[in-house]
């Protein structure tokens, strides 16, 4: 049974993506920092007939993240889809004049180095099988920086660059790397959470370009 690992799994988009892939026969590995919440989400998925387990891991702690992904692959099956979508810390949404080197370093570790550790963990099996998908979910600052969101405006473009390079390098091996950009807050958009999850599924099932905008950048609105 194929497995999707969702890094940054939460009760909204993460849960919706888990249900969508679960309907297609995927097992689901849920990763975030809160084991209790993960256990509750996994129980709800299992009640719907979807094999699922939660694995507590902090993307800022590489050893935790790598161990969680390896445990998931051993217990649920080879990870054939990786979604990297941890929710940025509120501290990353500071004005640029308040940004510090320490903030920038942490944001880079969160968005780029965490992703790199995850990719390097799951990629060997994907390359052996010559199939797999890596999905990035980012906000609008991955496309256009905002002076009031300094942390993500620095880190998301670097994450996007890494993803775009992977997209080019891995396409000949049958491995897709795709990014869904969601400008603004999902509750403020014209799509339901399940419709956004459907778009994520389509990026996996019908691979195309690296970047897909859920809505035009200028239509995105951030919560106050």
UniProtKB/TrEMBL annotation:
Top-rank lineage group of the source organism: Bacteria
Database matches in InterPro entries: NAD(P)-bd_dom_sf, SDR_fam
One Pfam family named in its UniProt record: adh_short
Spans traversing the lipid bilayer: none
Protein's name according to its UniProt entry: SDR family NAD(P)-dependent oxidoreductase
Record organism: Demequina capsici
